[in-house]
Amino acid sequence: MESTRGETPPIEQQRRAPRASGARRRPSGEAPPLPHGLGKTGTFWLLVIGYFVTVLIGVLIFPSAARLFERFDSMRMRWIASFRVGWLTHVMLWINTLSSRWVIRVIRWGTILALIAFKRWRQLWVFIGAVMFLEIAAYQISLSMARPRPLDVTILAGWNGYSMPSRPLAGLAVSLVGATYSLVVAGRPRYRTKWAVAIVVAIVVFARLYLAIDQPTSAGFGAVFGAAIAIVAFRWFCPNDVFPVSYRRGKSAHLDVGGARGAAIVAAVSDQLGLEVLDIKPVGLEGSGGSTPLRLRVKGSDDRPERYLFAKLYARSHVRADRWYKLGRSILYGALEDETPFKTVRRFVEYEDYTLRLLNDVGIPTPEPYGVVEITPEREYMIVMEFFDGAVEIGDAEIDDTVIDEGLGLIRRMWETGLAHRDVKPANLMVRDGHLKVIDVFFVQVRPSPWRQAVDLANMMMVLALRTDADRVYRRALLLFSEDELAEAFAAARGVASPTQLRTMMKQDGRGILERFRELAPARRPVSIQRWSVRRIALTAGVAALALLAISLLISNWAVFA
Amino acid sequence: MTRRTITVLVASIVALSSLAGCSASSSNMPQCTTTDENLFILMAQSVPSATQVPCVAELPAGWTFGGSLVQSGLTRFWLDSDRAGIHAVEVDLTRSCDPSQGVATPPGPDEVNMDVFLVPGLPPSFTATRFAVFEGGCVTYRYRFGGEASPSLTVEAQEALSFLSRRLIVREVELDFGLSLCGAFAKPCAS
User: pTM of this prediction?
Assistant: First the structure.
């Protein structure tokens, strides 16, 4: 909804207002813009898993059910055995080698080496974890079920251990599906690969039934179990939205805004903000990993021309990523600042909307907020704001004293109003018509620590000096800050206190900007970024214990890979 | 239940199940008295021609069941001893034995020809191999005693081990499932 401030209009106008702006309230019972559903694939997997779980429980509780399944499977196997001929048996024996230990090892090691080569650590750990979980679980289930090999039909190939679930098929499925999710780009390539994997596994299943190594239910359960473990592991711990597979440079941790989601965004913005979206384009992907930034082109109205808006799409995967990020920071540095993670994606967008409005209220040049748009309740939300059309990132802009003063003044204003931006870096500072603008206010904190405010000042001065020089920025800074304050800023700005992008650019610059600032400012003892607390120690000990457990599991199950 | 709770729960189950995995095989002992165990069906399937299947009669004091491995062509289980160490006795069921040992196959399917006792090593690291031959199969006993364990422990170990006729297992399968346990003593199977 277009932001309106001032007095409340008469009630007659209030009733008509939404209709006039084009916004519409979603009545009770109407589906949200992008309803959350399992989809056809999800429903299929759920039904298949439900079937096998029911069978497993039934067989474990009622021995008569085991006898029933054994007879049923044997009947089907006798029918399959009726097709046995010499040449076909040779073909099936050859196909069966695909489920051999060596082939599975090659797939697993190939995937692991490829993931190491591409430095996809998250995918690597999820892949190893999924394989280990599968091997352990399949082994335990096979011991619990203790199902012999097929009866009534001569077995034509080698086997190992109990048959339910088929461990070679489970191992093959988890390896192929895991490799697909960790190495193949999402979209059409992955879709096609998944089909290819399904066909390969189905052929191997048939070969093993033909050779009477596994019963139909054991083979089916093995293949489904392996695939399901890989799918769940990757969708849960390595969602493509946050940890995408890409062979292009830069980050692209973003949601697909085409198809159903694109249509839902258009409908949601129309219903909830009364704006007609003409085009959606992902922008600034390389500078953002915590959300999906979008540029929306919206239709003009009687009083406003066609224009662009900026939007950030948040999903639950972003909340999880934020939680991991904060956990890592808490362990590495202690409670530097508020490291409490958000619990829901709704809180995520609500907070950003609040900070945006807060900064606007105190006069910081940030985008005008348009509001929050619900895409899927509790799962996906989008925050919409003004797009600084024609603005360029400060790293590419001409910097004069006006911009320097505005940057320093902005920090001064934040200090005075008890705020800290906490993410001052070139990607978040734009210049338009010779004036500085601030974007991405998600990390803004109210009543931050003095250390955090000091770091903001140092980071701002370093950003400004990147396009000018330290001496000039320092001279301008003395007009707004005391020498003591500047000394405190550069004593506080150490290591991770500065965003990664800023540190990288400083390194590339090579002039030693930070060192020069420290020479100019009065000497002051460095402010330690390490904060120790009982919580940090407990957290570190807990994570270390889990890591040790994971390593010991890896070592004890090394045979899975070796 | 939140996602985090579910994640922690799953992780705990994985960790516990994997720890349990270390000892899972030890409970799976082929006891001669429990002929309806599926383990015997699997063992019989590993060497379909064998008319006998090795089993554990009664473990003497100080002996424990170590674990088992059953695959096509081979059934192996082993016993641990508090005096002779882990893997003190290893029992292998195979289709045939090393022919150089010259153990004769007995005339009847329910008979077992034992002996041929080889003693390649002497204490302190006693090792020995013994064969039992029967129609369609052979069992090899490998003794590897660590420390200063007495070779007389082989007698204890041998008393703990016995045989189960495949005939009994075949009958159990027919009664339970109405199906054939392909191989010796069983009805012909689809091939």
Answer: 0.69
